[in-house]
Design brief:
With about 210 residues, this protein is α/β, with parallel strands linked by helices. Helix content is about 40%, strand content about 20%. The protein starts with a helix and ends in an 8-residue tail after the last strand.
C-alpha cells in the first residue's frame, strides 16, 4: 500500500511538471520514445559503412534527441536512417523543438542530410484539456502508474483535434491494451490510435 501511494504521489508530481512545461510553452506559441526510435534499413548498413557504423550513428542520433530540453510526455520524436542521412518524424507541442531537434542531429559528425518531417501540433485549449485528462487516465491507473516513475514516462500522449495517439514502449501486451482502453474512456476523445510497442524481453525493466 505504501509503495502504491508513493507511485501515485510521484505520478501527480510528474503530471504537474510535464503538463506545465509542455502546455505553457504551447500556449506561448510543445521523448523517446518518447524516446526516439531508429529503424536501420539494409540501405543504411550498405551506404553508411557497415552495420556497426549504422548502429553507432543511430545511437548518436538517439542520444542527441533524448538530450533535448523541454521534451515532455506530450511529444514524440522518431527517426530513420538511410546510410548517413536522417529523417526526423513525430509530433511536438513546443514549436521550437522541431528546429532544435534538426540542429542537434546536424551537429553529429558523420551525418549527411537531415529531412525534418516533425509535425508541429496546433495550439488548442480543447486538446490541452484532453492531454491532461488522458495523462491522468493512464498514469493514475494502478497497473500503468509504474511507467511514470522515470523522468520522462515511456508512454507518450499525442493529441490533435480531439484524436489521441499513444507512442512509446511498454513491458507487455496487457499493458499496451490497458493503455488503449484507459485513453478511450476519456470524455471528448474522438479516436485513439495505439502505436505502443512491447519492449524486447531482454530490455524489459525489472
Amino acid at each position: 500500500m505504501k509503495l502504491n501511494e508513493e507511485r501515485r504521489v510521484a505520478g501527480f508530481k510528474l503530471l504537474r511538471k510535464a503538463f506545465w512545461v509542455g502546455l505553457s510553452l504551447a500556449l506561448g506559441g510543445w521523448s523517446a520514445t518518447l524516446p526516439a526510435l531508429a529503424q536501420n534499413s539494409p540501405a543504411a548498413r550498405k551506404q553508411g559503412g557497415g552495420e556497426k557504423y549504422a548502429e553507432g550513428l543511430a545511437r548518436e542520433v538517439h542520444h542527441e534527441l533524448t538530450a533535448l530540453p523541454y521534451v515532455s510526455v506530450f511529444d514524440h520524436i522518431a527517426f530513420t536512417l538511410n546510410g548517413n542521412n536522417v529523417t526526423l518524424t513525430g509530433q511536438v507541442v513546443r514549436h521550437t523543438l522541431k528546429t532544435e531537434a534538426e540542429a542537434a542531429v546536424k551537429s553529429i559528425a558523420g551525418v549527411g542530410s537531415v529531412v525534418n518531417q516533425i509535425e508541429e501540433l496546433p495550439a488548442s485549449a480543447g486538446d490541452d484539456d484532453l492531454r491532461r485528462a488522458v495523462y491522468r487516465a493512464i498514469y493514475e491507473d494502478a497497473v500503468l502508474s509504474r511507467y511514470a516513475v522515470d523522468e520522462l514516462p515511456s508512454i507518450h500522449i499525442i493529441v490533435k483535434n480531439g484524436s489521441v495517439a499513444l507512442e512509446g514502449q511498454v513491458e507487455n501486451e496487457g499493458d499496451r491494451n490497458r493503455a488503449l482502453v484507459r485513453a478511450g474512456f476519456v470524455a471528448n476523445v474522438s479516436s485513439v490510435r495505439n502505436n505502443l510497442v512491447v519492449r524486447p524481453k531482454e530490455n524489459t525493466k525489472k
